[in-house]
Amino acid sequence: MHRDSNVKSAADDGIKMQKKCETMIIIKMEPRHILDVAKLEAEIFSVPWSQQAFAGALEMDQAFFYVAQEADAVVGYCGVSLAADEAEITNIATAPGRRRRNIAKRLLQKAMDEAHERGAQRMFLEVRSLNKPAIGLYQKTGFQTVGIRKKYYRHPQDDALVMMYRYADII
Ligand SMILES: CC(C)(COP(=O)(O)OP(=O)(O)OC[C@H]1O[C@@H](n2cnc3c(N)ncnc32)[C@H](O)[C@@H]1OP(=O)(O)O)[C@@H](O)C(=O)NCCC(=O)NCCS
């Protein structure tokens, strides 16, 4: 992610929830979700995307978002930007109280599938080197570290890992 994706709260990250997400659905993000997504974003990141930023991205042909919804509440979201045959994860987060229930994994899988259907051969992302939950998610999904951007993030300072997923049918 190009922005400073400092994570404010990950207090419940270590809690392994027994209950999986029976009632959770993954759907394409629509304008009606912007307020809830921006609220979650502000809760989770120190330099959050604004409502306007999400609204602008939603209008772009080369960007798309999915949300995870449970009983009408948005509990996660994932955004992708496409450029030629490459895709980039621009946003991904799960509500603090809903973590370790495969929500991000399912969001990411949907996003990866659509990016591939729309021509992506590789998917990239940037992640703080100290963000173990996110790195764990990406590794589990098949991303590999392909570079490091030293001191890329501020508040607090951290390196960015550049991770890449290569779709299997690439020659
Ligand atoms: C990273 C984040 C999106 C993961 O969301 P989640 O819904 O809890 O993730 P999932 O339940 O789908 O986890 C899938 C896999 O990711 C890995 N993972 C997730 N949380 C982890 C943690 N705290 N520690 C280690 N591995 C973790 C595990 O391999 C997990 O599989 P498992 O539960 O079978 O072991 C969530 O912690 C979050 O919102 N963090 C703050 C925002 C953020 O950092 N976004 C990424 C910015 S680059």
UniProtKB/TrEMBL annotation:
Q: Which organism is it from?
A: Eubacterium plexicaudatum ASF492
Pfam families, sorted = Acetyltransf_1
The protein's name in its UniProt record:
Ribosomal-protein-alanine acetyltransferase
Annotated GO molecular function terms are: N-acetyltransferase activity
Tell me the PANTHER family matching this sequence: N-ALPHA-ACETYLTRANSFERASE, N-ALPHA-ACETYLTRANSFERASE 50
Query: What SUPFAM superfamilies does this protein map onto?
Result: Acyl-CoA N-acyltransferases (Nat)
Q: Does the keyword section mention Acyltransferase?
A: yes
| Annotated PROSITE patterns | GNAT (PS51186)
Q: Which UniProt keywords apply?
A: Acyltransferase, Transferase
N-acetyltransferase domain segment(s): 24-168
